[in-house]
Design a protein that fits this description.
The protein is of the alpha+beta class. The protein has one domain (2-236): Beta Barrel (Hypothetical Protein Pfu-838710-001). It has helices at 15-20, 23-26, 46-49, 99-105, 171-181, 200-209, 223-236, and strands at residues 2-11, 30-41, 53-59, 62-68, 72-74, 77-86, 119-135, 138-151, 154-167, 193-195. It has an eight-stranded antiparallel β-barrel with strand order 1-6-4-3-2-7-8-9. A hairpin with a 2-residue loop joins strand 3 (53-59) and strand 4 (62-68). The two termini are 13 Å apart. Mean pLDDT is 86; it is low at 241-267.
Length: 267
């Protein structure tokens, strides 16, 4: 098991091209992969209710099974437990899952769930462009994802930047995000990006079941409340089968971030 710590930014339509041309990335080696992902759940949504996601990812001829625990997300920065293993030479059931490997995790969220009832629930297919960035003791994987979420005949666009911490302190994620989002050169414009808390799996769940309404009388609006509202609003304004709406997003805010994510601890 590993703890995945990452900062997610939702991107406007113009952002991917601007990001790829950023001087900070121009000197770094890059690679692009096409990823096909099938997420599983029971018919009554037992995994979603337990706040875990089960995925089989296709990378070329390889297949990888992953279980992710619920994320603690604050200002786009999230931390979650992740269990991942190759399905090569593994015995899989009719749905394409390694049940034995899942049972071997002994994860509390899976207790009481009949794993034989797991079936494909939705898919995410996207192109991922990757860079590796190093700053002092910090190493960060920069991933630009573009593609689609498909669920029950409806679609949502995937256009996001994920900064995943491999080594070092989480504050390095904020510094890198700030550098990538600031204007480049005289007369340059900020990268059209904003923090996002919703994962691809949670977005798919809302696409399938509908988006929750905001509280009628919110007594206090925190940063995370606003991010959640933006995440929900943007996706709920997208009609099934259509591209995401265009948004004029404000520049990346310059602020001091001191909150650190606490990793998932297995009981």
């Amino acid at each position: 098991m590993s703890d995945e710590i990452e900062l997610k930014l939702a991107l406007a339509e113009s952002a991917p091209a601007a990001l790829a041309a950023h001087p900070l990335l121009s000197t770094l080696a890059t690679a692009t992969h096409t990823l096909g992902n099938c997420y599983y759940d029971t018919a009554d949504g037992a995994l979603e209710a337990a706040r875990v996601a089960l995925r089989v990812r296709r990378i070329g001829e390889k297949r990888v099974q992953t279980l992710k625990s619920a994320a603690a997300s604050h200002g786009g920065l999230s931390s979650r437990g992740e269990w991942e293993w190759s399905l090569d030479e593994r015995a899989c059931n009719a749905a394409g899952l390694d049940e034995t490997g899942l049972r071997g995790l002994d994860h509390p969220a899976l207790a009481g769930i009949d794993l034989t009832r797991l079936r494909p629930a939705f898919t995410t297919d996207f192109e991922r462009r990757i860079w590796r960035f190093r700053e002092g003791e910090a190493e960060i994987e920069i991933a630009l994802d573009q593609g689609e979420i498909r669920a029950d005949g409806a679609t949502l666009a995937i256009r996001e930047l994920e900064l995943e911490l491999k080594t070092g302190a989480a504050e390095a994620l904020w510094r890198l995000a700030d550098a990538l989002c600031q204007p480049v050169g005289t007369g340059g414009t900020p990268l059209a990006a904003r923090p996002a808390n919703h994962s691809k799996a949670s977005r798919a769940g809302a696409l399938r079941h509908g988006w929750p309404r905001p509280p009628a009388h919110a007594t206090e609006a925190s940063l995370d409340t606003l991010i959640e509202a933006l995440d929900t609003w943007q996706d709920s304004q997208t009609r099934p089968g259509c591209a995401a709406p265009r948004c004029a997003w404000p520049p990346w805010p310059r602020r001091r971030h001191t909150r650190r994510c606490q990793p998932f601890r297995r009981p």
